[in-house]
What does this fold into?
Amino acid sequence: MIKQISGFQPTGNLHLGNLLGAIRPLVEAQATADSIAMIVDLHALTMEHDPAAVRANTLEVATLLLAAGVDPRRTAIIANSQVPEHTELHYLLECTTGFGEAARMIQFKEKSAGGGPVRLSLLTYPVLMAADILVHGADHVPVGEDQSQHLELARTIAIRFNARYGETFTVPEGIRPESAARIMDLSDPTRKMSKSAPSAAGRIGLLDPPETIRRAISRAVTDTAGVVRHDPEHQPGVTNLLEILVACTGEKPGGFSSYGALKREVADVVVALLEPIRARYRELDPGYVRETLAEGRTRVRPAALATVRRARAAIGLCL
Ligand code: AQP
It folds into this structure.
């Protein structure tokens, strides 16, 4: 069976983009793939962070994954901080990665460009991401465009390590699941919907109440063309609303006489999609969520440990 790993950063509240671009494809893949849903809480430490928020967000992401249909009997849900083999392998991989390779990562350049203090972990986190993937022997990694450079680095590291020290790692492949939609920010449809956007106005949180969702969609930026048309270049806002509709319903949208009618329909389907998730989220007991994370860790550790032992032996350490 194909081994697949999907990562989620606990850096804020999950949004509709995370659901339609990553969680739903993960739920669909459960029938055919041996999946791991990984909350990358270690990655959340690479920028200025509030410890309590990281912990709370980690549990919120785990709860939302369960509420959205990730079945812990089929998919191990883990936090990367709770599987120490990730950090052990991270160090071994750092010893096979060049400084220049890490320094040219676009995300590092962008996030360190602000002029404030830059954590060393921000530079090395793509190597941790490589460890997150390689330690579990993942064949497939669903990635958005902004992570493709990091996935390529993980592949380069795996290929180089295998060639230099002997066959140790599965070389992962980045995939874009067919059902993965890319959802844009409602107030700036040229940018993807994001947890860390400066304004929450363009984001639909998975736990937002219906009235907040309706308000956000009614205020979504459109244009002055006055025609409902799928035209990403000239009508990105309207196109985004149409794509949200298709992603939520799985059907080709009908004709709309006005932007108002389109927005009302989008609001109805998004509210209908998120309402059961919000309801299940409220029912889930935090103790059960913690147990699920502990079970996930127990399930994945033997294979992770075997990978680390192989890597230790190959690179020249005593076992
Ligand atoms: N707008 C989006 N549309 C479709 N898919 C998206 N994803 C993120 N935003 C969209 C996918 O969700 C998964 C988890 O993302 P992440 O937690 O790794 O964070 P990210 O990709 O960096 O995006 P976010 O959620 O906006 O977080 P911030 O603002 O913290 O960077 C990934 O599979 C991602 O592709």
